[in-house]
Design a protein that fits this description.
single chain; alpha+beta; 6-stranded antiparallel β-sheet
Length: 652
């Protein structure tokens, strides 16, 4: 009888355990409160196994400890705060590393691990624990404990493991649901806050969804949009040329008809206030139950279209002829002036290859090399030549980009004719100046010789007036000789100069200071020189330029010893070199007149000279492509500045 009674009791316990598992599983399906489920699980496990303690330990981030999240029987204040280490020296740590239940008959005598303080302090003797989850991916530990020695059966182990499986499954489902909910919220937030307008159009052509950016672009709220169909006449849809779109040409109909996606379709729509908005549309079928709906993403390109229109209008206003080529030298744009000079209409040129339209241009090395270099090396190039096919002199500037080349060109035939005429005129002027100076100097030498002869032979018989008259005549003849020589130098600046080369202006300054050494010493002048650059120039002419300016600075120093500073400053592709003194200065109203030939601000009695030195300086600077000017106030000194082209450092 006893045996039957024990068997019945065991069967009753097993049935009860199964019922508890079923009820707990049903609760897990029905509740969203994980903490309630965890607490109820510890309650029913402790009650079912008639144990004093039960606990759920949660593995904390970092994996070094487990938190007592829920439990039964523990001292007040421990649940939610007490922790257990995860090392193999504790039962909980040991349990994390196996998928089988860990049964302890006697905690104090178990050789596998020692009891943590939580168990020892509660006089635990026997217990059983199982991982919640798996040893590969544990969430925590479920444990049940008694204060008296207890032999847990296999059925007890299965019961605890089943409860653990319910908890693990529920936790996994909750985490998955939370992750999916989080991902959903993120997607919704991304869609709503996207800088791109996004809409869903249903199979019937009505708008089923529009994000905030779509509302902004449409100029209509979401509720209002739901009353619109994709082809509603109020959209006033047009293509890039302003032509109204038919229903079949709308983005939705194109996607619906083909079942394929569309990309970068540009069209215009009308907002309620009448403003035209341009958009670029991408669309795809929304393959959900094959219901025929579609999703569209679009960006507002109104500003881009405005800039494109302005650019096109600007090109039309460019006075130079202009055309654009792609990277295969096909015409992509031609303005009206280019049509006129190229003697072809835009329609005839667009899409055509430059060398096919103008084959003779490909035979001109200078032209061919300029285009190839601009495209292949991505550097601006230019050329100037007479093009027989079009019968005019052309000046062309080529500006490359990643997509092709922009070419600005002009007919410079008139300029070339003027330059040639000017060159001939300058040559004749130089010849005239040379002849005039030569012809004038011969009788002038004779006059000077006879005046000197009179002075030598008849000085003793001349009275005081006669001697004075003779000195005036000799001085006048000498000044005329100097003026004729200066005028000859002035006429030869352009034609007798040397080719421009790299010049060390510091060396030029040293040479000039050597040449003016006597004048510097006689006037007790102090010359300070800053760091000077290398420039493009004619060395001899630059020496003459600096010598004129430095000599003037010493000459017009006033009563004090001359103090002169020579300095330089870089500005883009030019150097500005300045000669500054502390002398008598110049009236600002006179600073332009001093550069004219034979103009003087002082009498010859006050300051000697021919009055052509600054005119020579100006012509030298202009020959070098620069400018010269003076900044001054009376009594405040003067600064003469001029610009010269810089020498670029070689590429390394």
């Amino acid at each position: 009888m006893g045996s039957t009674s024990e068997a019945d009791a065991e069967l009753h316990d097993r049935i009860h355990q199964q019922e508890v598992v079923v009820e707990l599983g049903q609760q897990a399906l029905e509740t969203d409160e994980l903490d309630r489920l965890l607490q109820d699980a510890t309650d029913v496990v402790a009650e079912t196994l008639d144990a004093e303690y039960c606990k759920v330990l949660e593995l904390r981030p970092g994996g070094t400890e487990l938190l007592l999240r829920h439990g039964v029987g523990w001292e007040e204040g421990l649940v939610g705060t007490a922790t257990v280490p995860t090392g193999t020296g504790s039962q909980a740590g040991y349990t994390l590393r196996t998928d089988e239940p860990v049964v302890v008959d006697g905690l104090s005598t178990d050789k596998r691990f020692s009891g943590p303080d939580l168990l020892v302090n509660h006089d635990v003797v026997s217990g059983m624990s199982v991982v919640i989850g798996s040893s590969d991916n544990p969430w925590g530990v479920l444990g049940v404990y008694t204060t008296e020695r207890r032999a847990f059966t296999e059925h007890d182990s299965n019961f605890v493991r089943n409860v653990s499986n319910i908890l693990a499954s529920t936790i996994d489902n909750r985490e998955t649901e939370q992750r999916l909910e989080t991902e959903k919220r993120i997607r919704e937030q991304l869609v709503e806050t996207s800088p791109v307008g996004i809409v869903v159009v249903g199979a019937d052509g009505t708008l089923q969804f529009a994000n905030e950016r779509a509302e902004e672009i449409y100029g209509r709220g979401r509720e209002e949009l739901e009353a619109y169909s994709h082809d509603d006449s109020r959209w006033d849809l047009v293509d890039t040329h302003g032509k109204p779109l038919s229903k079949d040409e709308t983005p939705f109909e194109q996607v619906l008809a083909t079942g394929e996606s569309i990309f970068d379709m540009e069209l215009g729509l009308r907002q309620p206030d009448g403003k035209r908005v341009w958009i670029s549309v991408n669309g795809s079928p929304l393959r959900i139950d094959d219901d025929g709906s579609a999703v569209f993403a679009f960006t507002d390109i109104t500003e881009q279209k405005r800039l494109e229109t302005e650019f096109t209008e600007m090109l039309g206003r460019v006075s130079d002829a202009f055309y654009a080529l792609d990277d295969e030298f096909r015409f992509t744009h031609v303005n009206e002036r280019a049509e006129e000079l190229l003697q072809h209409s835009e329609e005839e040129l667009l899409g055509e290859i430059l060398w096919n339209v103008f084959p003779s241009a490909a035979e001109i090395d200078e032209v061919w090399d300029a285009f190839q270099t601009a495209r292949d090396e991505q550097v601006p190039t230019s050329y100037e030549l007479y093009y027989d096919t079009l019968e005019f002199w052309v000046e062309a500037n080529l500006y490359p980009s990643e997509t092709g080349i922009s070419v600005y060109f002009r007919d410079i035939s008139d300029r070339v004719r003027r330059e040639r005429a000017l060159k001939r005129s300058n040559e004749r002027l130089e010849q005239f100046a040379y002849s005039a100076s030569h012809d004038l100097q011969e009788p002038l030498r004779m006059v000077s010789s006879y005046l000197q002869l009179i002075e030598h032979r008849y000085r003793d018989v001349l009275d005081e007036d006669g001697e004075e008259f003779l000195e005036f005549a000799i001085d006048g003849a000498e000044r005329m000789r100097a003026m004729i020589q200066s005028l000859l130098e002035y006429s030869r600046i352009e034609t007798r100069g040397e080719p421009l080369e790299d010049v060390d202006f510091e060396r030029v300054t040293e040479d000039v200071l050597d040449d003016l050494q006597l004048q510097i010493e006689d006037n007790d002048a102090e010359i300070s020189v800053g760091e000077l650059p290398r420039v493009k120039g004619d060395p001899e002419q630059l020496r003459q330029l600096l010598q004129n300016l430095l000599s003037n600075a010493i000459q017009y120093s006033g009563d004090e010893p001359p103090r002169v500073r020579i300095s330089a400053e870089r500005s883009d592709s030019m150097w500005t070199i300045s000669v500054a003194d502390e002398g008598i200065g110049i009236d600002p109203d006179e600073t332009n007149r001093i550069f004219e030939v034979f103009e003087r601000l002082h009498s010859r009695k006050e300051h000697a000279g021919t009055g052509i030195g600054l005119a020579l300086a100006q012509r030298i600077v202009e020959r070098h492509g620069g400018e010269i000017w003076a900044d001054s106030e009376p009594g405040e000194g003067a600064t003469f500045s001029f610009t010269l082209p810089a020498v670029e450092a070689p590429d390394r």
